[in-house]
Amino acid sequence: MGQWAGYLQLILDGALVTIKLTLMGSALALVMAFIAGLGRLSRFAVVRWLATAYIEFFRGTSIFVQLFWAYFVLPLFGFSLTPLQAGVLALGLNVGAYGAEVVRGAVKSIGKEQYEACVALNFNRWQTLRYIILPQAFVLMLPTFGNNAIELLKGSAVVSLISLADMTFQAQVVRAQTGNTLFPFLTILILYFIIASVISFAVRWLERYMTRGLDGVRS
Amino acid sequence: MEWDWAFVMQILPTLFEGVKITILATLLGSIVAAALGLVIAILRRSKYRLISMPTGFIAEFIRGTPLLVQLYFIFYVLPDMGITLAPLVAGVIGLGLHYGTYAAEVYRAGIENVARGQWEAAKACNLTAFQTWTRVILPQALPPMIPALANYFIAMFKETPLLSAITVLELMNQARSIANFNYRYIEPITLVGAFFLAISLISVIGLRWLERRYGRIG
């Protein structure tokens, strides 16, 4: 059993990279989701088109293709990215496009009377969005955002193919060094599942926290 | 580095070989996922908790872990247990298993959408469990699921490049081998992206049609 301790350490190092990638990717995805999601609801047609083009483009091709494009093709145009940067960029932009649809759906589901109340209170557009619409819409977005974060975690496994030493990459290293297949792959499957469970638990907690005191108010 | 149309023309036939495998893997994977999803959905509804709970856990486990790792597992671990699979077979099983758990959720929503009265009527007519499923519940539950299922099959199509990691010679793998051989990345990788984007945009139109034709769950 002693020899496995060292290999387990290797996989845990990879788990750290996976977690880092998931956190940074989710942060970028969240920003992109709000920019593109609200962009699709903009008054200006140009902004709407740009947001739609971004969403359709990144939803239309898979994370794998985008990652390869970011890592192998962008340098030829003069943007050299490290594997970590390419990973965060591709994951964030990809999941952000899915998140944008969630933002749009949640904002659109807020009732007309909320907007009318804002007009009655003489709120400007920014105030309406910031203080009335988004606080209500964000609660609606949370469960789907949680699912998206898990998709991002699962997507992060492909960065192992551009030689970033994440959990999957380390499992391949262990496989190559020991010839044992069951130990590395079963270990990372369980670790991925644990991380995914933590995400879904955290999102459920956040949802409860944000809806506290709202029982009976929300329909 | 500039875009070279002559090079594009030269590599198109090879890429087309990859497209065939990509489509084949998607079709076979969809069939496996559709069948497996139904089995999972029905087992999860079993009244015996010894059946429903493990099924639920396994489905959650598969949904919570990356497809790439599952493919590695099927491709590298199973041979050690005496089951050696061809890369494409392993890939189809992986895709089918992964998306089967997603399809199961669609089936679950569709089945729950069938009104309670239908179950009670089936019971009142003294139908067996099998008859209830095949004659009453599924014919009503399936049509509204079609758009949602199609959505996941499109998602599966976009995930097929992952099969290149277990040496299936599909589109992405062909593109990578061309790129590595000629040391030109722009054209092959961009063409792969353009191909997937084109198919996705077309399939969105098909999806809208399916939604009009069969309605949607919800």
TrEMBL record, chain A:
Keywords recorded for this protein, A-Z: Amino-acid transport, Cell membrane, Membrane, Transmembrane, Transmembrane helix, Transport
Spans traversing the lipid bilayer: 15-36, 57-78, 182-203
Domain ABC transmembrane type-1, chain residue ranges per copy: 15-200
Subcellular location: Cell inner membrane; Cell membrane
GO cellular component: ATP-binding cassette (ABC) transporter complex
Superkingdom of the source species: Bacteria
PROSITE patterns reported in the protein's UniProt record: ABC_TM1 (PS50928)
GO molecular function: transmembrane transporter activity
GO biological process: amino acid transport
Name the record gives this protein: Ectoine/hydroxyectoine ABC transporter permease subunit EhuC
Automatic annotation (TrEMBL), chain B:
Occurrences of domain ABC transmembrane type-1 (ranges): 19-207
One GO CC annotation: ATP-binding cassette (ABC) transporter complex
Regions that span the bilayer: 20-43, 81-99, 189-210
Alphabetical list of Pfam families matching this protein: BPD_transp_1
Keywords: Amino-acid transport, Cell membrane, Membrane, Transmembrane, Transmembrane helix, Transport
InterPro entries to which the protein is assigned, alphabetical: AA_ABC_transptr_permease_3TM, ArtM/GltK/GlnP/TcyL/YhdX-like, Ectoine_EhuD, MetI-like, MetI-like_sf
Record's subcellular location: Cell inner membrane; Cell membrane
GO biological process, one term: amino acid transport
GO MF terms, alphabetically ordered: transmembrane transporter activity
Family (UniProt): Belongs to the binding-protein-dependent transport system permease family. HisMQ subfamily.
NCBIfam families: ectoine_ehuD (TIGR03003), HEQRo_perm_3TM (TIGR01726)
Protein name: Ectoine/hydroxyectoine ABC transporter permease subunit EhuD
Taxonomic source organism: Paramesorhizobium deserti
